[in-house]
Design brief:
The complex is a heterodimer of chains A (253) and B (448).
Chain A: E1 2-11, E2 14-24, E3 29-33, H1 40-47, E4 53-62, E5 65-66, H2 72-77, E6 80-83, E7 90-94, H3 95-109, H4 117-130, E8 141-142, H5 148-162, E9 166-170, H6 178-191, E10 197-201, E11 215-220, E12 223-228, H7 231-239, H8 242-252
Parallel strand pairs in A: 3-10, 3-11, 6-9, 9-10
Antiparallel strand pairs in A: 1-2, 1-4, 4-5, 7-8, 11-12
Helix pairs in contact in A: 4-5, 5-6
Chain B: H1 2-20, H2 24-27, H3 30-40, H4 55-58, H5 76-79, E1 90-95, E2 98-100, H6 103-110, E3 115-118, H7 119-125, H8 127-131, H9 146-152, E4 156-161, E5 171-177, E6 183-193, E7 198-207, E8 213-223, E9 228-236, E10 241-251, E11 256-265, E12 268-277, E13 283-292, E14 297-306, E15 312-321, E16 326-335, E17 343-352, E18 358-367, E19 373-381, H10 385-393, H11 398-414, H12 420-434
Parallel strand pairs in B: 1-5, 4-6, 5-7, 6-8, 7-9, 8-10, 9-11, 10-12, 11-13, 12-14, 13-15, 14-16, 15-17, 16-18, 17-19
Antiparallel strand pairs in B: 1-2, 3-4
Classes of the chains: A alpha/beta (253), B alpha/beta (448).
Amino acid sequence: MLKIENLHAAINGKEILKGINLEVNAGEVHAIMGPNGSGKSTMSNVLVGHPAYEVTDGTATFKGRNLLEMSAEERSHEGLFMSFQYPVEIPGVSMTNFMRTAINEKRKYQGLPPMAPTEFLKFIKEKRDMVKLDAKFMNRSVNEGFSGGEKKRNEIFQMAMLEPSLSILDETDSGLDIDALRIVADGVNQLKSPETAVIVITHYQRLLDYIKPDIVHVLYQGRIIRTAGPELALELEERGYDWVIKEFEDSQK
Amino acid sequence: MKSAQNYIDLFKENRTLVERGSAGVMNSLRDAALKSLEKYGLPHNGLEEYLHTDVSKWFEPDWGMNLARIDMPVDFAQAFKCSVPNLSTQLYFLANDIFASSETAAKNLLQQGVFACSLKEAALTHPELVKDFYGKIADIDKPGIAAINTLFAQDGFLLYVPDGAVIEKPLQLITLLSSAVDLMVNRRILIVLGRAAQAKLLLCDHALAANNYLTTQVIEVFAGQDSAFELYDLEETHTANRRVSELYISQSAGSRVSVDNLTLHNGQTRNTVCAVFNGIGAELSLNGVVVSDKDQHVDNFTFVDHRAADCTSSELFKYVLDGSSTGAFAGKVLVREGAQHTSSQQTNRNICLTRDARMFTQPQLEIYADDVKCSHGATVGQLDDRALFYMRQRGIPEQEARMMLMLAFVGEVIGKVELEPLRDRLYRLVEKRFRGELTQCEGCRACR
């Protein structure tokens, strides 16, 4: 589904990603872990086409198409979703209006007519229930006045609405208490299917107790320095990152 | 001064013509207006209040005026079916600056002792009524356009709502600029609300033909004790249009006035609002939206004079400037000695969409009472990049996302419009404007 080769990216002239290689197939859950400043958020932002980042080398294909040539909105229409680490507040734009526009733009891209209002409302209710998001949020401005947990649930709600094929969860666990974490993880798990894939970007093992990864990667200084099964996450939780970094540095000598 | 002299000469040569086309009450102020114009000239950018708008330049061309009151026929029914959906209004027209009567409308309202009619006609038939108010608060003894307007104005609109009368149905006054040649019009509007009277008035300012127009507009509003008045002044003209408007409001105790100034399409505009609290416990809500692009220019100047205690004024003005348009906002709030428990809030927020768009903003507070709550704030910025990217990530194309953010930005002001159908209509008009579908005055179609 997603194939990244030798990806280099910079922001403000400073290179952050220094040769990422990663392949994600349908049905898989990947975890990307790593210490602060290793490039985790840069990687997710580059994949969804944040204009501040410049790709300086390498390729990325999504469903066989050159991802890097697509606009952010086109990537979204093609089925790429990112749950933001810091969801943005948009005063004056109601959740309903926001979602209706997003859904109908995607349908337009797919050559479908706009969703009928009654169908849309039913759809919203179904997805809201999944992440236990109260109806009152739909009339509010996007993320405005939402608590930290509500913002993250709102991200997963939007993910459910847009039915992406590849979801990137960027530090979705940060700032969540244990109940909110469970609700968010339940939502993600319900959306999992053999046709979809998830990349979980996280600092801690905690979220991975709920969203079980198939493959775990360690990102360090803009490169993936280790890839292994789910047991790697447990080991990192126990021993920290130092040993992986040391082993990597030794191998480079 | 040069251009002022032209108008002074013009008036002197045509005084008889001007006065013949008007009424005694209006003619009685022309001497004073003439003196004032001779003394102050026309407002220019050497004056602090006109720093960003040299109004005197607009008067330089040799404008024609319809002093002889030649009938310039406008087929209203054909040209203009102005109906905000679900908003049924009592409709009146001003063709340039001549009141075009609407018989049935006048009849319906007269039952309540209400006048909604030609200012000139009222001044002729009920001079005692008009005399007490006409020119009483429009200040000609200072630089401004009240003097030149008072000098040349021959007609306009009168809304008189006697004590206790409540007009539920919103009134709508559509002013149409329509002429085969370039034209200067001097429009005069007088609004009087008696004790506990209530009314809502929507002014729609349109230009039908693409000639150059210069409009001077003076509105006087007398809000009696415990009265309630809503005024919506919507300008939707075109780039060859210049407009100078002065709105004077006098509020008695317990009155509530709300004003929404909406400049959706124009050429060069200067709006001045002067509001005075003369009695305790009165409220004023003064709001504005400006959407401009190309070389358009919009300058809003407000002056709120707290002369009485326990009054509340709140101001919210928002500008979205595109192209190489310029905007200016200056808001002065004066809290006089003894105006205790004044609550005053003034906010001006602006978005410049391009590097060439310019905004000048200047809040000004003068407080001479010690127990008051006053605040002001002004910002100039761009659209929120983070919000734009967030929306694009969700599949909303950049253009659409920008549109939604701009609409949300001015939506805060439009949301304050109390008439729901008008509010919906304004949202749609603004959206159309942002989509670039309103690149010139739509004339009649604008209000459909």
